[in-house]
Structures are given as C-alpha cells and as structure tokens.
Amino acid sequence: MKVIMYHYVRPHTDFANNKSVLPLDVFNWQLDFFSKTGSIIHPADLFVPDFQPEPHQYLLTFDDGLIDHYTHVFPALQQRGLSGLFFLNGKNFVENRLLNVHRLHYLLANCPAKTLETACLNLMEKYPLVPAYKQRFEASVYEGLQQEEIISDIKARLNFFVTPQDQDSILEQLLHQFGFDEKPIMQQFYLNQSQASDMQQAGMYFGAHGYSHYVMSNLPVAKQQSDIDQSIHFLQQWLPAHQPLSFCYPYGYHNSYDEFCTSYLQQQTACAFAVENRPLSEADWTNNRWALPRIDCNRFLPD
To answer: Locate the NodB homology domain: which residues (predicted)?
Structure first.
C-alpha cells in the first residue's frame, strides 16, 4: 500500500519556494491516477481487525489542518466519493497563532531569502545551535529537495538545530521585525472547528499530529508525553465524534522521534505514521505499526 503525504494543496503559486505545495490540478490528476492504477481506501479500513495492506492500495493523508484541506481537498474527495485521513495539531488553535513551521513558511514566502537569512543569523547570535540536535539532523534534513541553499539552511537551523523555546522566540521576533501580524494570518491559514466537523460528518477521518509540531526527539521524555497527551486531548475535545485514534509524527524523519515516543504511542493510539518514501508492506503493518512509511505527494507527478 502507498500512503501518500500531503500538506498544501492550492491552485495559486504563493509559497513558490515551498516544496510542500502541490498544485490543485496535479492533486486532481493524482486522484484520477490512483483510482485508475489501484484503489484509494477509506481510512476506516485501517481499523478493521483483519486489515492487511495490499500493493494496489492507496491511502491519502493530510498534515497540519490547513485551510487548503477544507476549501480544495475536501470538495475534490467528495466529488469522487473518497475520504482521507487529516492530522491536526492543537497549539495553533488554542493560542490563536501560527505553528513555528508555518511561521517560517510564511516568512520564506514573503521576504527575500537573503534578507531573511541575514536577519535570522543576526538573531541567532543570541540563540546558539544545540550540537546534539545538529549532529542528529544535519545529514538528513531536506535531503534531495533541490531548494535554494539559503532556504534549506534557514529551515534546518530554525526547525531542527535550536531548542523549541528559542525557536518560538526567534520566529516571534522575525515576524515582528518584518511587520507581520500573525493573528489575522492564522485565521486564514487553518481550517476551523466548524469546517473540521463538517468534514468529519461527511466521512473524513482525523488523527493527532503533536500539540506543538515540535521535533519530538528534541524534547525530554516528560515533554514528549505531555505534547502527545495534549494533542490527543485537543483532538477529542474539538471533534468529539468517536473515531479510532491515529498519530502522525511532526516532520516524520526517522530521527525526529525516538523509542520512547513510539512505545508511548502504542499505549495511546492504533497506529502512527512517519515519512519514508516507500510503500507500506505487510511486515510494516505487523511489526512496525507505530512508524508506518508515507510517500511525499510530489513523487507522483504527470509527465
């Protein structure tokens, strides 16, 4: 089975340097392509006791609760009688702010890369890189994305190489420095509770994606547990209709979560998804159900 990972799906070209953006026409092409070459399963199928993945199957997953998922993805799925699995955080909704990963996306989309890099480096003189974090992620983050070197460097430094607290502070200061008020941005960036409820009532499934979208392996064990608990609690309060619970690791690289994280999720959820560009096998489902591979949607493009 191929589990496909989506983030932004939109018809316009903002966030042009963000490789997480999939044009809407390509998304529609993918839905047709997946349906012709196999079958797109309903997320509910995962939770049937005797479920086994098969090579011709596709599962569609969508991260971060973006407004794209309501305005563009949801109608396209409904039109075809399909469903997807949508992963929500919580901190952004509770605190009425952008998640740090999206603060950075917004800055990269709206500021010249070199100007942003200079401002970032000046600020980071006060916030040192954590050597253990840098060693853990330096070789793997953004590998093969072919982005501008400056953009990849900024993203690596801010997403992976500083503490979560320093990340908060740096990005808040950068937004202020470039004159952005994130509250009105946030309200147009994510779907809201009513929209998520409409989607759920129409057969879409929702899972947890970490409360804060921090790198789990950069958090102490107690904070990992707290972040997972808060994420699950938020999801169950926001969308009280019962669905079997799944989880998706923020960022999803194999080194972005650790053994504690997977073992704790085994107690709390039915399965968890990571990022690894290969199909999900029967062996994964049997032996590796809390680190299931997903394939980036940009691996499937028309000729």
So the answer is: 56-96, 184-256
The two three-digit tokens of residue 88, written as one number: 């929500």
Q: What's 225-263 look like in SS3?
A: HHHHHHHHHHHHHHCCCCCCCEEECCCCCCCCCCHHHHH
Name the CATH code of domain 2-95+190-299 (choices 3.40.50.300, 3.40.50.720, 3.40.47.10, 3.20.20.370): 3.20.20.370
Residues 199-226: pLDDT tens digits?
Answer: 999 999 999 999 999 999 999 999 999 9
Q: Quick one: which of 285, 280, 294, 189 has its CA closest to 248?
A: 294
182-207 in b/e burial notation, b at 16+ Cβ within 10 A? Answer: beebbeebbbeeebbbebbeeebbbb
Confidence class for position 145, pLDDT limits 50, 70, 90:
very low
